[in-house]
Amino acid sequence: MSNTRTLPVLEPDVVPCCPPLTERTLTAAEAERTAAMFKALSDPVRLRLFSAVASAPGGEACVCDISDVGVSQPTVSHHLKKLKEAGLLASERRGTWVYYRVEPSVLAGMGRLLTGPARV
């Protein structure tokens, strides 16, 4: 007998972090949050880890599958923690492994922040 059960799929509350930079000046709070996200991504190892999670099949990656970025496992865990603290990743422990996924609004919100409408 299987212990597996199907859980309902919930639609995430997708709220971008900020309006496009071309729409209006960011508030102090919006600038703080956005700076923390970009600061977390400014490290090459973190950027590689974020990319590995974002591009993983099914939208999530086990830490065991993304740790080959040229640093030790404790350093990988440190960088994943920083990405999570910046609001870029969410995690879920399953047995002995931790699975990471990009927060639903992150990619769309960051893309919207940087692109906005074109000005001539």
UniProtKB/TrEMBL annotation:
Task: Please give the CDD domains that the UniProt record associates with this protein.
Answer: HTH_ARSR
Q: Which residue windows are transmembrane per the record?
A: none
What NCBIfam families does the record point to? Answer: HTH_metalloreg
GO MF annotation, one: DNA-binding transcription factor activity
Record domain HTH arsR-type: where = 26-120
Q: Does the keyword Transcription apply?
A: yes
Originating species: Microbispora hainanensis
Give the UniProt keywords, A-Z.
DNA-binding, Transcription, Transcription regulation
Q: Which domain of life is it from?
A: Bacteria
**The keyword Disulfide bond is assigned to this record:** no
Protein's name in the database? Winged helix-turn-helix transcriptional regulator
Q: Spell out the Pfam families in the cross-references.
A: HTH_5 (PF01022)
